[in-house]
Structure formats: structure tokens, C-alpha cells
Amino acid sequence: MANRKLYRILKKIKQEQPAVRALSDEELSGKTGEFRMRIAQGASADSLLPEAFAVVCEADRRILGMEPYDCQILGGVALHYGYLAEMNTGEGKTLTATLPLYLNALTGKSTILVTANDYLAERDAKEMGPVYEFLGITVRSGVRQEEEGKTHNAWKRQIYNADIVYTTHSTLGFDYLMNNLVSSAEDRFMREFYYVIIDEADMVLMDAATMPLVISGAPRVQSNLYEIADFFVTTLQEDRDYIKEENSVWLTDEGVAYAERYFRINGFYEAENFELNRHVTLALKAHFTMERNKDYVVTEKGEISLLDNSTGRVLPGMKLRGGIHQALETKEKVQVTQENRSVASITYQNLFLLFPRMSGMSGTIADAKRELRKIYKKKVAVIPPHKPLQRVDQKDLFFKTAEQQYEEAVREVLERHETGQPVLVMTSTIADTQLVSHALIEKQVPHSVLNANNAYWEAQIIKEAGQKGIVTVSTGMAGRGTDIRLGDGVAELGGLAVIGIGRMGNIRVERQARGRAGRQGDPGCSQFFVSLEDDAVSAVGEKVLERYVDKDRRISKGHLRRLINGTQKVQEERSAAGRQSTVDYDKVLKRQRTMMYDVRNRLLDGGSLEQQLILQLAWEGVERFLKEHPHPAAGEINRYMLDNLSYRLDNRFLNARHMKKKMLKKKIRFYVETVWKRKTELFSSEEELREYIRLCSLRAIDNAWVEQVDYLQQLQYVVSGLAAAQRNPVFEYHREAYDSFIRMENVIKKDIVRNVFLGQKSYGKAGEMQVLFP
Ligand code: ADP
What we know:
Layout (H helix, E strand, L loop, with lengths): L3 H18 L3 H16 L4 H20 L5 H11 L3 E3 L6 H13 L5 E5 L2 H18 L3 E3 L10 H9 L3 E5 H11 L15 E5 L1 H7 L4 E8 L5 H10 L7 E4 L2 E4 L1 H11 L10 H15 L7 E3 L5 E5 L4 E2 L9 H8 L8 E8 H6 L3 E6 L6 H8 L3 E3 L9 E2 L3 E3 L2 H18 L3 E5 L2 H13 L5 E3 L7 H7 L6 E5 L20 E6 L5 H8 L9 E8 L3 H4 L3 H9 L6 H48 L6 H18 L5 H11 L16 H20 L5 H35 L8 H30 L1 E4 L5 E4 L2
Parallel strand pairs: 1-13, 1-14, 2-4, 2-5, 3-4, 5-13, 15-21, 16-21, 17-19, 17-20, 18-19, 20-21
Antiparallel strand pairs: 6-12, 7-8, 9-10, 10-11, 22-23
The chain binds adenosine-5'-diphosphate.
The site of adenosine-5'-diphosphate has 14 residues, from helix 5.
């Protein structure tokens, strides 16, 4: 329930309303300037809330013809205070968001609303636009195509400089990564994150939370290991060679021994077999944890497209990290695409944790309360509906076999359809929509099918779904963020009927499905038909299936119910554990990313390294070299100098081998200092040299960091196979990730020295300094 504090604030807003209503249009829109002034003078956004909310309510009424209901105001307050607000579909979340967005935009800091797809971002920015415009607040859609004649970054900057931005989670994520890849301060386009509202927050923060957004760069050398590994895993036997548990699979000791014999190698987990190990792990995943038409589809063009398994939607352009995509392509025997290095990556989880003020809304978020609190430290506020819910949710019906389940479900659809009531059949997979569709065709019932293969028609199909006599068959995707209105005369027939087939992966998906019916106090009903053969059930308990389904064994209704309900819990716990382990893995990348971006930003902003430090780093390099080569030959020293410090060769070290260590060091030191002096003399001013060092350092950091991101991604795959070696994968990952970070730091130091000593400066057209790197 929404707490008392929220109601108290609601009361204050209501008290402000009469005075605000009495204002002329001009006075009303003039309020924005006044609020901004007060904030400039030190007033907090919280202190302005009652009056500011009253102003937006009045503007919404005058400009859009809609005045936010009390429940919406309550929701708005919750969003301002960083709650995750549970509000049903159709309650008017779009209007609700105008209240906190306006208030937070007054601070002059970045204020963003994240929607589930491009269409909604565009639509909401456009529909709410006039209110903001009236109030003197700029708003932009972040997903709009670029205008001609503008550079990409200039275009993006214009978007992010708006007071309020409506965008999608993926656009925001990619923009964030791009913004941290720019090579000069002027190219940055994003303001520092401040306030965000996430629409359909449970989907973004839970279901898609662990999905990494990856920016790819230069292609990796294509390996033929995919095919070799692919064939290898088809020769394995479950339980003997590998163990499979929900979303993970690993080789047993026996499997490892077999792999070593098969590939004729020693030590499958040794560093020298890193690549082979990685490919085998990928092939195992592709074969045993990913299912065609459930996790991905193969398009007519022979491309693999991933499916979002909670909604059945195709995720366009989304590639799995670290080569799993290629492993799937090999498994499906389609053209293997180029595997690119990942240059930058972030999960949604970490993206949204970057916001100092984050809030969200969804029709189904209370069910995930505990986990959201644990991972995001966020509380849920359940906002009551404007009109009481009339929908009747029937108790689930349980069946032993899929055959009985489908027969009954289709009978129910027919019965309702004959009265003219619109029916929406929801299934969890594409394959199931096809089954239902066939059954309906047999009974000669016309219907539309909505699944990942025809999402293009979504808006049209949804629009018709509430009309008399319409039957729609859909995967879980229908309606996230769009609501189904009832046609004329449909309310009298009982409103929309939702028939759910099959246990879904988690309770939120089922509640989303039921929520398609009964919007804003409409009549409606929902009923689920579940069986022991549902994917969600069989994924957990194949043993159970063997015992009951195949044989003619009797099973009591109560037992059946307990079995099926139990499996959903197990599934949810597993998903939660999966998300937790991503959090654990990701902590490392997050910490390293934060450090690197900090250093990078300082350099971008004009910070540079002191000359003294460069000399010191150069000397550290020499010392490392001398440690590795205690008695270097003249040739070795010269090689080192050529590679790191100077293109000009000096044969001063001819008798290095016979020189005393101390003497040699002194000589080298003198030499390094001379080289450095020669270098610095090429610059006309201290400033110029500083700029040169800055560019050289930036380049060194970027190169090394790109490698590191890529390495950490691959590492995750490799360690996930370690469960067999009786080692804790997360622990091993953290250790190796730490070690690799230290190694990276050394590489950076070495490269800074190399770039500074061996780089050549020149000047671009605009007179800006450029460096030709060694
Ligand atoms: P949600 O995102 O919560 O599913 P929407 O924001 O799409 O809901 O709004 C659903 C419909 O309700 C929209 O057509 C909107 O115009 C209407 N609506 C929302 N709030 C109000 C209001 N206070 N008064 C009148 N109509 C409203």
C-alpha cells in the first residue's frame, strides 16, 4: 500500500489547487520562472513539490483536457521520492509522469523517462509535449532519427540538453557507452545522470536486467574452433560427460578427461587452452541451454534473432556477448557472422544504478519487491486504481497432459466466442500460439496471431482485440505498455476474456496477461489452463513427468496443483539466483569501469600528467626491463630503446654485458634524460607539451581498456565451466579480473611512455594538435 507520507503530501497538493486554478494562463506558465528562481536561491525540489504538482495538474487540465486523478497524483509523488510505483495498465502512467518530470526538470539537471519501445517514447513525448511547452520546459524524444546536416554527436547533444528526454532503455544505454568513447571533450553529448523514471520497470530491472549492451569494435580473428567444439559437444552424454541445470551446463570430471583425450591436450583449464575451453563452453551453452523458437528464432534469411523469453519479442540487433551468437549459428548450421571485439559494455542493472535518483512504474512490480529492494535498494508503493477493479480472476485449472489442457482451453474460447465476447489467448511460447491457432482453424474460428514473427502488426491487432467477436492469440508480448479498449456493446458481454495457456516463467508475466482485461474498472475475466507438460514445469521436473504423464497413473487434483505451483517457485528462485550471480560478476566490471571513466574524463577535461611523472614511468619501465634481463647484451638494450623510447639509435652500450649494474643504470638514466630533453625541445610551450602528453595518455588508456572489457567478457564464459573443477566460478572470476586489471595498469603505463616518447605531433585543419602514434 502507498504509505501515509504520500497521502499527506497529496493533501498538501490538493490545498494548493484552488489558488492555482484561479491563475490566468500567463500567470500559470510564469510559475516555471518563479520556481527556477527559488531553486537558484537554494529552495529544494521537495519544498516546491505541492505547488509545482498543482501547477502541472492545472496545465494538464487546460492543455490536454485531462486532470490527473488523485491516484495519479499519488503515483507522481511516489515517483518523485524514488519509489517503484505499481499502477495497472490503463491507469494513465503517461500523465502521471508529467508531475515528477516537471518538478525534477526545474532543477536544471538531466531528467529522463525510459519507455519500453521507440513507438512509446515518440508518442509520449509528442502527446505530453504541449503541456511542457506551455510551461516553458523543453522536451525531446531520444529515439528520433537524425536530422540532416548535423553531426551525430551534435544531434545527440541537442536531445540530451532538453530539460526532459523521453527515450528507451537500449537507446539510453548505447548512448551512455558512446558518450564514454568520444575522443575529445567537445564530442561528449550527455549531461551527468540525475533523475530517471523507468516505465515497465520490472521488465527492465528484472527480466532484461542482466542483458549486456555491447558496443563492438574491430573484428576478432575468426576461428574454426566453433565447428570443432560444436561437433565435440554432440558426442557428449548428459549426466556422464556434462551436467545441465536450468541455465547452466558444465563438464563433469569425466567430461573434462574425455575432452583432454579428444583434443589431445593436457589441462583443459590451463591458460594455454583458454580459447578451446571458451569455445567448448559456448557450444555447450548453445546446445543444451538454448532452445530454438523459445530463446531464439532462425529467420528466413538464415540469421539468428534472439527472443526476449518473457514477452516472446524479437530483440532486434541484440547479440549475446562473447561468441554465444556464433556458437548458435554453428549449431543451426547457418552462416557464421563475424565475431567482433566488445569495446564497451554495460548491463541494464548497472546502467540504472548510475542514476542518483531512480524511480519506476509498472502494473506488476509488487511481486518482485524483495529482490528489487536487495539489488536496487528500492521500495515498492502500490497505488490504488482510480476505479475499483471489476475483473474476475478465475482459479487456475490443472491438467495432467497438454492434450487435455488444450482441448479444455479451446472449448472455453469457443464458448465465449459464440456469445460475441472478445477473447485474448495468451501463451508463453511462439510454438504454443501455433498450436492454439491450428486448433482454432479446425473449429473454423477466425483469429489473429500475434508473436515475434509479426510484431509489425502489433498496434493494429491490439486495437481490434477488444472488439466484439474478435479472437486474438498472442505470446506474452501483447499489451506491455499498450492498453486494450473495449468496443461498443462489449462491456455488456462481460468485457475482454483472457485465457492463459501454460504456467509462465514467473508470476509477473501471468499478472501482466490477466491485466490485459479489466482496464480502468472495465468488466473482464481471466482464466489459466496449466498442465504437467508446460515448459515451465517440465524444465524443472522431468522426473515428475516420467512418473505421471507417460504412464496411466492417477494423480489427485491437489497433488497436481502442488506439483505445478511448486515448479514456478523453483523457476523464480533460479532466475533470481541467475540475476544475483550477474550482479556478482558485474561488480568487477562496474568498479573497473568507474575508475577508468573517471580517469578518462579527467583527461578529456584537459587534465594531463606532469612531465616528472612521465620521466618516472619511463624509468620504471627500464627497471622492469633490467629485472627481466639482468645481463642485457647491447643488442637487447638497443631493441628496448627502439621499441619504447627513441627511434634514434645510439651504440653507447657496446660493453653492457661487462658493465657493473650500477654503472649501466647510470648510463641508461643519462641516456633516457637526454632523449626526453630532445623530445621536449620540440614543443614551443609548456602548454603544448601538456596537450601532447594528454592525447598520448588518453590513447594508451583507451586501447588497454578496450582489451580489458573484451577479456572480462570472455573470462565469464570460461569460468562458468569451472564448476566442474570444484572451484567457485565467481571467486575465480574476481581474482583473475583483479589480476588482469593490474596487468592492464602496467600496459597503460608502458604505452603512455611509448606514445609520448615515440609519437609525432602534427596539426589538423582547425589548428588542433594531432598525434601520430607509434
Ligand atoms: P498506462 O500507461 O498506465 O497503461 P496510459 O498512460 O496509456 O495508461 O493511459 C491510458 C488512457 O487513459 C489514455 O488514453 C489517457 O488518455 C487516459 N487517461 C489517463 N489519465 C487520465 C485522466 N486523468 N483523465 C482522463 N483520461 C485519462
